[in-house]
Every structure is written in structure tokens, then in C-alpha cells.
User: What shape does this take?
Amino acid sequence: MSKAQDPFYIVKEEIQESIDKLQSSFHQWERIRPEDEERVHLTKELLANCESIEWKIDELDKAISVAARDPSWYGIDEVELESRRRWTSNARTQVGTVKKTVVARKETGNTASAMHRELMRLPISHQADRSNLYSTEDNDDFIASELDRQMLLIRLSNSGPQTLWPLFCGNTNIRN
Assistant: This one.
């Protein structure tokens, strides 16, 4: 099945367009003063869009899991499955970053010290029980995905350079 016919790539493109729009709105949101009514409206819109995109990514992850049960039946291999998982993980991270930033600024205000705490990921002194706005689970997920990616690259490099070359050229649909 060609990429043009593969439903994954159709949905991936739709999700990527949504992420691009989300990031554009986010950059607009960053330029608006916190006390401005437009900022309040855009905050709600950003959070709703994050939820919607996260749902789409979850559904795409479910489809990848189904394909992983019998990849040959779907005409894909482990390298393609890993590529798809990596894309959904990166997409989830992009959306999560926007969502965390919007939520953090909504909760802490947009003062210079609040932005500094957010950027430095420092605890909010009056919220001792919430000492870290960013969970270690996110870090663990990122480390696990990076480890998986590195292990895949090691396995592929042991197969020879002809296996790795298509990855660097952008062709992830490798057939042996």
C-alpha cells in the first residue's frame, strides 16, 4: 500500500495540520496581555484544541497497536511501526507542551516570576504539594522512547548501512 493510500498518513497529515494551527494560535496567545479578554477566550480555545488533538493521537495509537499484532497483514514492518510510534509520541509531546504552558500560566498568572518558574520548572512556593508542574512520568516516557529508538538504530546498524540509508533519506517503508 502506498503512503497516499495508507490511512495512517491521511490521519497523520490531518493531525499535523491541527498541531500547526494549535502552535500558531499558541504564539498569538503568548503575545496577548494576560488581562485582555481575547486571551481568556483563546485560552479556552487552546485547551479544547489540545484535548481534541490528544484524542486523535490516542485513536491513531490504537490503530498502530492493532497493526502491530500482524504487521505483515497490513504491509508494514517493525521499522515502519517504530516510525509511526515515534511520530505519535512526538506529536503528543508537542501538544502536551502547549497544554502545560497554557495551564501553568492560567494557574499562576503571567507575571515575570511566574514565567521564570515555568521556564526553570521551579516549584511554586505557595503550592508545596505541587512541587513540580511537570511529572517525572513524562520524563520516563521520553527516556523510554529515546531508548527504544536507539536500540532500533543499533539493531539496524548491525544489519549494515543499506538498512540505515533509507532512514536518513526519509524512506521509512523498508522491505527486506
Residues 49 and 135 are 22 Å apart (CA to CA). The chain is about 75% helix and 0% strand. The two ends are 16 Å apart (CA to CA). The mean pLDDT is 77.
